[in-house]
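Recall that a protein's primary structure is simply its ordered list of amino acids. Everything else, from secondary elements to tertiary packing, is in principle encoded there. The following example makes that idea concrete.
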Amino acid sequence: MLGLVPPMLAAVVSLVGLLMADPILGISSVLWRRLGAAATIEAAALLQPQALIVAIPIGVLFAGFVAYRRKQEQAPIVMAVSLFALSLVAALISLAIMSAVPAANQAFRETLYGAAGYSAPGPSGPPEMNVAELLDARRLAAGNPRRQATYDFYRHQKLAVPFAAVVFALVTMAFHRPRALSHPILMSAHLTVLVTIIYYILLMSGKTLALRQAVPPWLGAWGANLILTAVALLVLSRRVSRISA
C-alpha cells in the first residue's frame, strides 16, 4: 500500500493547488493589506478542506491507474487488497474533512468580512450546512416536500462523495491494463480525467433529478457511486470468469 501513497499525494497536492489558486489569489491582496500575512495564510488554510474532499478520491483513482500501468512487482491480489485498503482510509479521511467543511467555510467568511469591518453571514444554503443543521432544517420544512428533498440530498451527498474513493478503487481494478508503458503517468492522468468527468456528470444528473423529485434524494446522491460500482463489478466478474475458464 505504501507504494500507492506517493502518486496519490502528488495528485492531491496538484489538484488542491489548481482548485485553490484562483480564490486564494483573489483574497490575498485584500487580506494581506488589511490584516497581514498571518491572517492571509490562515484564511487560505480554511479554504483547503473543500478542495481536499474532491482531491482525495481523485488521488486514489490516479494512484490506482499508475500502479497498474507500471510493471507489476506484486501479485494481482496483493495489489487489489492494497488499493482497496488505501481507498477505505482515504474515504474515512475525506468523511472527516467533509464534516469540518461547514465550520471552516464559516470561519473563512468571518475572517473575510471582518477584514472589511462587517459581520459575517451564516450558511448561505444547504451545501454550507452540516448534517445536524440539515436535519433541523428538514424538520422545519415539514409540509414542503421539495425543500425536504433538497436537505435530504445534500445530507446523503456528504457521505457519497467521500466514498467515491472506494468506487474509484474498484474502477481501476476493473479497467486497468497490466502492462508497462513508456508514459504510464500521462496515460494514468488521461484515464483519471475521463473517469472523473463521467462521475461528475452522473453526480450532477442525480442532483438535478433529486431536486426535481424525479428520484429519491438518496438515489440522486448515491447514484453515481452505484452505477460505477455496478459497472466495475460486472467487468471484474467477467474478467474472473475468463481467467477461470
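The chain has eight helices and no strands. Residues 2-244 form one domain.
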